[in-house]
Design the sequence.
């Protein structure tokens, strides 16, 4: 795969995550460090019915014939052939299982409010109509958008891309954002950590020959073209195109060095620590030391 494809998809992913952040940050005030409320079985059932009602009303308004597939954790609504829709729904269940194992979510526990609602349209124009008429947003040139609300609901919509592997990658990437939104507390984690984890999990679950090596080469080239400076990587509300491969490689290194410390790092932020304090206290590596080790790990000297 050529690097241009990485860049094009990363622009899509960035646009998708903007929708996630906008749903529950400044407009909703500071996120609470209290855990998401545990719903009773009756409340979970009611939330699922609410999602199904929303999905049916959207289909009726758009006039697009769409079937549905329901798994333990997802409602998958699509006009794709049933067999293909089930294939993608199964991939999302695998993603949920992978993240549950990583973050020690007990097997079988559903962290969603009801279930995560996934729309996939075979035609780009139908996806854009959904975003405009149902979600009241401008989809622009995106391949999809994820809307995670302060109430805990997660709705993600896509249009089916021509390349099935690229579509699968983006599908997993955005669903990781939804999982992280619902994990533990409503506190959001910074863009570099969120995007880095989403890219890492998507690359693991949707293996493509040469992708890891291509991402590493791109991260190295991007750092070198910026003279080793990571810029506002750690502090920006939304990392930009060239920083995505860097975020994935940094996350990969952190996980390789200590998966348990990485989980503690995410938990620290979810408990209210700032990202830099969580790096020091939970990951056991202050930013300056982490950046130096990262530069050595990717083979770029003087990264800062």
Sequence:
């Amino acid at each position: 795969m050529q690097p241009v494809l990485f860049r094009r998809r990363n622009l899509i992913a960035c646009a998708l995550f903007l929708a996630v952040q906008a749903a529950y940050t400044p407009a909703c005030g500071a996120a609470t460090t209290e855990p998401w409320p545990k719903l009773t079985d009756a409340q979970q059932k009611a939330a699922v019915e609410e999602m199904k009602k929303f999905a049916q009303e959207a289909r009726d308004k758009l006039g697009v014939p769409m079937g549905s597939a329901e798994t333990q954790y997802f409602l998958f609504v699509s006009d794709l052939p049933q067999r293909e829709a089930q294939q993608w729904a199964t991939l999302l269940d695998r993603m949920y299982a992978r993240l549950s194992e990583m973050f020690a979510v007990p097997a079988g526990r559903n962290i969603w409010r009801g279930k995560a609602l996934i729309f996939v349209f075979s035609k780009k124009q139908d996806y854009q109509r959904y975003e405009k008429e149902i979600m009241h947003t401008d989809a622009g040139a995106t391949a999809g958008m994820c809307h995670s609300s302060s109430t805990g609901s997660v709705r993600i919509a896509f249009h089916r891309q021509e390349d099935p592997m690229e579509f699968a990658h983006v599908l997993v990437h955005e669903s990781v954002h939804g999982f992280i939104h619902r994990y533990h507390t409503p506190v959001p984690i910074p863009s570099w950590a969120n995007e880095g984890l989403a890219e890492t999990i998507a690359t693991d679950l949707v293996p493509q020959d040469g992708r890891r090596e291509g991402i590493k080469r791109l991260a190295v080239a991007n750092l070198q073209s910026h003279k080793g400076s990571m810029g506002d990587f750690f502090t920006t509300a939304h990392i930009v195109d060239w920083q995505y491969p860097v975020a994935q490689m940094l996350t990969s290194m952190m996980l390789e060095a200590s998966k348990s410390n990485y989980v503690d790092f995410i938990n620290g932020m979810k408990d209210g620590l700032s990202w830099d304090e969580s790096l020091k206290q939970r990951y056991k590596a202050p930013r300056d030391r982490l950046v130096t080790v990262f530069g050595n790990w990717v083979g770029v000297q003087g990264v800062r």
Residues 117 and 153 are 8 Å apart (CA to CA). The beta strands are 67-70, 74-78, 116-121, 144-148, 154-159.
